[in-house]
Design a protein that fits this description.
Blueprint lengths: L6 H4 L10 E5 L10 H14 L6 E4 L5 E5 L1
Antiparallel strand pairs: 1-3, 2-3
Length: 70
């Protein structure tokens, strides 16, 4: 018997979830933690998700973009 699990076994409990990806063009990559209103909005969205999702916000490493994944 093999110690390896099949892909079917590994993904049995996986449920597909919708994902939103938005790219916002920026002039400057200002540290996000310095933007009070932005931090407040992120807190609000995370509270609305109630642990049933996640909000990921980061700057692109190669383009002048703010990437928002929900």
């Amino acid at each position: 018997m093999s110690d390896r699990a099949s892909l079917d076994d590994l993904t049995r409990d996986w449920a597909e979830a919708p994902q939103l990806l938005k790219n916002l063009r920026v002039k400057q990559k200002v540290p996000l933690e310095t933007l009070l209103r932005f931090q407040e909005k992120m807190t609000e969205v995370n509270q609305e998700l109630q642990g049933c999702g996640r909000l990921v916000v980061r700057y692109s490493g190669t383009e002048p973009l703010l990437r928002v994944n929900d």
